[in-house]
């Protein structure tokens, strides 16, 4: 196992090491933005981008990126210049930093710390901060509304997320994501199912459903995309942004989506463990399985996006405080009881 | 409590119903027609662009007269006697040079009214619809196959012939007039001589007359 965080004498290896998740995020973002447009197209009986790059418009997001790089970087007159310019980078930094504790493969993890889950949840809270920063600094009513909604939403939905993560921690007995993954190895559940946590315990299925709904809200995906609702808030906190800074927001949003999906796949679907036990296992296959699980969850997020309409703010709050939080705490108690009894 | 479960069940049921619909469309066929690469087949009798088979045109001007917006502009010159323009494929003899046959598709309203009067079926709609242009003058389609030189030559010839014919006609008129004059004069002369003759041999010239 590589653990470069302990070794601070070599700067270059650390930079190379840090570039690995960055590469994954960038490549994923290009593929995911293209994929999202394709999925949107297919669901609406269209074809999506077809021309750029030849084969089914695969280079569409690259072309979009080049276009965004050439655009003017506009700062509104009455904006708070420093915060306005800084917010998108902080947002990306927040989701990028969280990738440090994601175990991409059995032999690769950025930082194998013992409080991985805690670190991840703490760092992703910075996302809210950067969104409010962008919204407030823009000095625009739509942005501010979006930012306030985002704050309310993130603060609310972090509670059920953490409660469901806690249920997993009760079962796994560790905050270290690598350890949580390793204890899900093997294929013994009911004789044939993999030892993934979601198959361990019926209450963990409920936990996963609550977790998935909460990460939809955390990642600002439809039906919880109130902070940036295009149709009512003209993209919310992104209203005043253009060019590269807007691209950073987009990248951070997609990175956040992947991050939370990967977290879900670690906590409930065995991370880099192969679904066939020893078959197709190993570091490289591990990476493959891990990304496959993460991208499947991302696909479900996109699928939901093009199916469901957006909630109202009061409905959003009702779902969180009225249903998900009580349910997740009841579930937490039930999982704890299950663990005590069995 | 029962209400909560019922509502929860309904929520998930409706969400999964909706997601089932979208996933069916996800795997279903697309309705997109990638236009410049693929084209929809036009229905039979589509009116898209007028075309004139100039070899069959007899220059009768019926289409131009039928046109409600006057978008067909035809100029004909009568063929001289020494040229034979042949016949159309329908067997009608051609008697005119078509020095101009312009159709302004910017004016055309695709009513098809010019197509039906044509005696030789030489003007008709073709299924070609991609001729949009930024300049309106490019929408005037020229169908005459005569070069400007030929047009000038043909016109000159026709004028010459017309003049010659006019001259001939005048000559003929004059000749006719002369002939008539001559005839009249002759008649007069004859009449006078006849008078004389009559006075001379009035009696002997009537042998069958009964003497009284």
Give your account of this protein's structure.
The complex is a heterodimer of chains A (342) and B (212). Chain A has 342 residues and is mostly helical. Chain A has one domain (74-341). The longest helix of chain A is centred in the first third of the chain and has 33 residues, at 11-43. Chain A has a two-stranded antiparallel sheet. In chain A, α1 packs across α9, α5 (141-172) packs antiparallel against α7 (202-218) and α5 (141-172) runs parallel beside α11. Chain A contains eleven helices and two strands; from the N terminus they run αααββαααααααα. By secondary structure, chain B is an alpha+beta fold. In chain B, strands 2-3-5 form a three-stranded antiparallel beta sheet. A two-stranded antiparallel ribbon of chain B has the order 1-4.
Helix content of chain A: 55-70%
CATH topology of the domain at 49-146 in chain B: Alpha-Beta Plaits
What is the rounded Rg of chain B?
Answer: 40 Å
The CATH architecture of the domain at 49-146 in chain B can be given as 2-Layer Sandwich
Main β-sheet of chain A: number of strands, strand sense, barrel status?
2 strands, antiparallel
Average pLDDT number of chain B: 83
Residue windows where pLDDT falls under 50 for at least 5 positions of chain A: none
């Amino acid at each position: 196992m590589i653990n470069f965080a302990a070794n601070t004498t070599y700067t270059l290896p650390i930079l190379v090491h840090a570039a690995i998740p960055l590469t994954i995020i960038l490549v994923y973002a290009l593929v995911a933005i293209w994929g999202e447009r394709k999925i949107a197209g297919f669901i609406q009986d269209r074809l999506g981008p077809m021309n750029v790059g030849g084969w089914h418009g695969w280079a569409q997001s690259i072309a979009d990126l080049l276009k965004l790089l050439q655009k003017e970087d506009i700062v509104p007159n009455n904006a708070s210049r420093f915060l306005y310019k800084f917010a998108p980078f902080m947002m990306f930094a927040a989701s990028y930093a969280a990738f440090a504790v994601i175990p991409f493969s059995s032999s690769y993890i950025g930082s194998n710390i013992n409080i991985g889950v805690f670190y991840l949840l703490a760092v992703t809270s910075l996302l809210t901060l950067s969104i409010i920063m962008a919204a407030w600094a823009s000095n625009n009513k739509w942005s501010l509304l979006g930012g306030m909604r985002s704050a309310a939403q993130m603060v609310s939905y972090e509670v059920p997320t953490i409660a469901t993560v806690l249920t997993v921690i009760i079962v796994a007995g560790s905050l270290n994501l690598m350890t949580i993954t390793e204890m899900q190895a093997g294929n013994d559940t009911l004789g044939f199912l993999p030892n993934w946590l979601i198959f361990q315990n019926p209450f963990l299925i409920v936990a996963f459903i609550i977790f998935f709904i909460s990460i939809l809200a955390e990642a600002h995906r439809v039906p919880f995309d109130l902070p940036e609702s295009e149709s009512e808030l003209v993209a919310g906190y992104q209203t005043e942004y253009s060019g590269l800074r807007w691209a950073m927001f987009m990248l951070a949003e997609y990175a956040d989506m992947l991050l939370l999906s990967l977290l879900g796949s670690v906590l409930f679907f065995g991370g880099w463990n192969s679904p066939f036990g020893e078959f197709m296992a190993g570091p490289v296959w591990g990476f493959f399985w891990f990304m496959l699980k993460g991208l499947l969850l991302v696909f479900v997020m996109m699928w939901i996006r093009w199916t469901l309409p957006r909630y109202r703010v009061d409905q959003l709050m009702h779902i969180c405080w009225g249903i998900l939080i009580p349910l997740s705490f009841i579930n937490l108690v039930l999982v704890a009881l299950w663990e005590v009894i069995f | 409590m029962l209400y909560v479960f019922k509502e929860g069940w309904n929520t998930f049921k409706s969400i999964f119903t909706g997601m089932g619909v979208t996933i069916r469309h996800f795997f279903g066929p697309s309705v997109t027609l990638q236009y410049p690469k693929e084209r929809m087949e036009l229905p039979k009798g589509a009116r898209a662009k007028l075309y004139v088979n100039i070899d069959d045109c007899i220059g009768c001007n019926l289409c131009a007269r039928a046109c409600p917006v006057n978008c067909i502009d035809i100029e004909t010159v009568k063929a001289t006697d020494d040229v034979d323009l042949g016949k159309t494929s329908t067997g009608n003899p051609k008697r005119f040079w078509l020095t101009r046959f312009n159709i302004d598709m910017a004016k055309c309203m695709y009513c098809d009214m010019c197509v039906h009067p044509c005696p030789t079926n030489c003007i008709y709609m073709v299924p070609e619809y991609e001729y949009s242009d930024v300049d309106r003058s490019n929408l005037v389609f020229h169908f005459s196959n005569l070069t400007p030189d030929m047009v000038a030559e043909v016109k000159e010839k026709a004028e010459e012939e017309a003049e010659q014919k006019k001259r001939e006609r005048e000559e003929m008129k004059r000749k006719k007039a002369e002939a008539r004059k001559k005839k009249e004069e002759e008649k007069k002369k004859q009449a006078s001589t006849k008078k004389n003759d009559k006075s001379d041999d009035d009696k002997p010239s009537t042998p069958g007359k009964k003497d009284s």
